């Protein structure tokens, strides 16, 4: 049984889909979001997508952890290089008249 909240939600949702189409030049009707008609539909869709995302990240946790560890030295060297460049730039800026 559809409530006034569901009717209001459906109206707002249709407006959001129309605004998206107007702004981006493509409709989302063919995508799963077009099937949402009630607040409960939205909650169910959010829960389903959250579960899928959680399963995706947990199944690839070891890969993500390995990549993170492998990239730490590169991140460290990049930060050191950026710091060195910053020091040289500041030195040149502060001692320009002595260097010329």
- Integer average pLDDT: 86
Indicate the overall shape: elongated
Unreliable runs, pLDDT <50, ≥5 residues? none
Question: What gyration radius follows from the Cα positions, in whole Å?
Answer: 26 Å
End-to-end Cα distance = 82 Å
The helix content is over 70%
Question: Strand count, sense and closure of the main sheet?
Answer: none
Number of domains: 2
SSE topology sketch:
Layout: H1 4-24, H2 39-59, H3 61-94, H4 96-99
Descriptive account of the structure:
The protein is mostly helical. The chain folds into two domains: 1-59, no CATH class; 68-100. The chain is built from four helices and no strands. The chain has helices at residues 4-24, 39-59, 61-94, 96-99. The longest helix has 34 residues, at 61-94. The chain is elongated, with a radius of gyration of 26 Å. The protein starts with a helix and ends with a helix. The mean pLDDT is 86.
Salient structural properties:
mainly alpha, 4 helices, 100 residues, 2 domains
Short description:
The mean pLDDT is 86. 80% of the residues lie in helices and 0% in strands. With 100 residues, the chain is mainly α.
């Amino acid at each position: 049984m559809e409530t006034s909240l569901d009717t209001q939600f459906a109206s707002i949702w249709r407006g959001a889909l129309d605004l998206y189409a107007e702004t981006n030049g493509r409709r989302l009707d063919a995508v799963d979001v077009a099937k949402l008609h009630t607040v409960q539909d939205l909650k169910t869709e959010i829960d389903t997508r959250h579960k899928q995302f959680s399963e995706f990240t947990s199944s690839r946790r070891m890969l993500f952890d390995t990549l993170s560890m492998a990239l730490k030295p590169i991140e460290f060297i990049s930060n050191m290089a950026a710091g060195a460049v910053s020091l040289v730039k500041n030195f040149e800026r502060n001692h320009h008249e002595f260097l010329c």
